[in-house]
Amino acid sequence: MTFQKNILITGGAGFIGSHLVRLMVNKYPDYRIINLDALTYAGNLENLKDVETKPNYAFERVDITKSDEVQAVFAKYDVDSVIHLAAESHVDRSITNPMAFVETNVIGTVVLLNAAKNHWKDFDGKLFYHVSTDEVYGTLGPTGLFKETTSYDPRSPYSASKASSDHFVRAYFHTYDMPVVLSNCSNNYGPYQFPEKLLPLFINNIKHNKALPVYGDGKYTRDWLWVEDHAAAIDVIFHKGISGETYNIGGNNEWTNIDLIYLLCDIMDDELGREKGTSKELITFVKDRPGHDKRYAIDASKLKNELGWGPSVKFPEGLIKTARWYLNNVDWMENVTSGAYQAYYKKQYDE
Ligand code: NAD
Ligand code: DAU
Predict the structure, then answer these.
(1) In this structure, is residue 272 part of a structural domain?
(2) CB-hemisphere CA count at 13 Å for 239?
(3) Ligand 1 center from residue 224 Cα (angstroms)
(4) Is 40's C-beta closer than 6 angstroms to any atom of ligand 1?
(5) Is residue 259 part of a domain?
(6) Helix, strand, coil in percent for the chain, rounding step 5
(7) Which regions in the chain score pLDDT beneath 50?
């Protein structure tokens, strides 16, 4: 079968990547979607059970730092477009092991850029789309919004590695004329997020009556976006974005951590049939994250005005849907945290 496009999505077994793969496989049967993922602790093929038998879906277990293997995937599928999400994504892990972030986020991105440059004899109909984060812009005071023109000021090893990868992608645009687009997005929430991140961790802890470790005074602000809205934005930017441009993506939905946690606690009390106030008793203020960015907030007006995208899911509906999903998907939670499931899949692909 000949496909209209052969799109390599890296990190497709992760949180955002799995939503994007699902959207692209289902919406575009004429595109072949090749999911390239190393299946680290954060990547789980269980996130994609509903698409794995589709004729326009393929999976390759490859580490993006391995140049020969990446190059071989480009050749095998004659890849013409890349949507690059594979990354080490957790700020706390970057504080304890920065080198893993340099390897995957910086070196892995350059390996992919080189593979694309080598495979693409010309750039006609080609695109390298880099999915990045608002954390590259650093931290905001009580007012103001990150714009695409905001200077980079990364403060954690994670954001420094993502900033570096953004710069490499832009360098390939300027130096080699490679067609690229970038997007920088705020905090995503929804199903299939690994339970090290705030919301799935706290939902799981509340369910099991475990402490909720709030860093510092909890007065840190994040802008929360429903993950399927992010996937929809990537679809729009992939098809309509202008080469060389960057688009900020956000939910226009700012919450301090502590207010968000209070809201989540109330929702969880309702969902679990507990007396109102029960879950809040689990809140424990703990030592702050080093270099903790005070506030992120996105100005997504360029994306709205130029390409017509806006967020569709609001709070509290999105947060209620999220809480219900984790409560209803007990097997998923157990599988991704047990290690046994991951060992099973890794063994399959190692053989
Ligand atoms: P995630 O940690 O859930 O998933 C990352 C995926 O990348 C996993 O499937 C993992 O197996 C894979 N991976 C990691 N190292 C790899 C390697 N060396 N080779 C191949 N695959 C590898 O991450 P996420 O939250 O879905 O984030 C996806 C992308 O979006 C990242 O680039 C992240 O920086 C960016 N982003 C995330 C958010 C957010 O709120 N989660 C917001 C903005 C941008
Ligand atoms: O802004 C986009 C970024 O959002 C993405 O680039 C990252 O990949 C993603 O992980 C996310 O980063 P954060 O550091 O904002 O997400 P996290 O869920 O780790 O933390 C959200 C906030 O909650 C942050 O202020 C730290 C705080 N926190 C987090 C955890 C895990 C706590 O107070 N306690 C916790 O246990």
Answers:
(1) no
(2) 13
(3) 17
(4) yes
(5) no
(6) 45, 20, 35
(7) 344-345, 348-351
Q: Tell me which residue of 342, 347, 351, 337 sits closest to 13, measured CA to CA.
A: 342
pLDDT for 351 equals 41
Catalytic residues: 134-135, 158
- Residue 53 phi/psi, 5-degree rounding, is -100, 5
- Indicate the pairing of strand 283-286 with strand 254-256: unpaired
Which pair of structure tokens corresponds to residue 170? 């832009």
Position 170 scores a pLDDT of 98
pLDDT, residue 342, reads: 54
- Which of 8, 23, 85, when mutated, tests ligand 1's pocket best, judged by the most ligand atoms within 8 Å of its CB? 85
Looking at residue 337, its pLDDT comes to 84
Instruction: State how many domains the chain has.
Output: 1
Find out whether the beta carbon of 230 lies less than 6 Å from any atom of ligand 2: no
Q: Which domain holds residue 30?
A: 5-190+226-251+293-314
Ligand 2 atom showing the smallest separation from residue 185 Cα = 2
User: Rounded to a whole number, what is the distance in angstroms from the first to the last CA of the chain?
Assistant: 27
- What is the reported pLDDT for 345? 47
- Beta bridge partners of residue 226, listed in sequence order: 189
Task: Tell me how far apart the alpha carbons of residues 7 and 17 are, in angstroms, rounded to a whole number.
Answer: 13
| 288 occurs within a structural domain | no
Which tokens belong to 130?
């880099």
Q: Is the CB of 134 within 6 Å of ligand 2?
A: yes
Q: What whole-number distance in Å separates Cα of residue 192 and Cα of residue 44?
A: 9
Question: Under 8 Å CB-to-CB from 330, ≥6 apart: which residues?
Answer: none
Q: What pLDDT shows up at residue 340?
A: 52
Q: In Å, what is the CA distance from 199 to each residue of 112, 187, 320?
A: 31, 11, 11
Q: Which ligand is nearest to the CA of 192?
A: 1
pTM for the predicted model, two decimal places: 0.97
CATH number of the structural domain spanning residue 299:
3.40.50.720
Distance CA 36, CA 91 (A): 23
CB of 162 shorter than 6 A to ligand 1: yes
Distance 350 CA to ligand 1 centre (A): 21
Tell me, yes or no, whether 335 lies in a domain: no
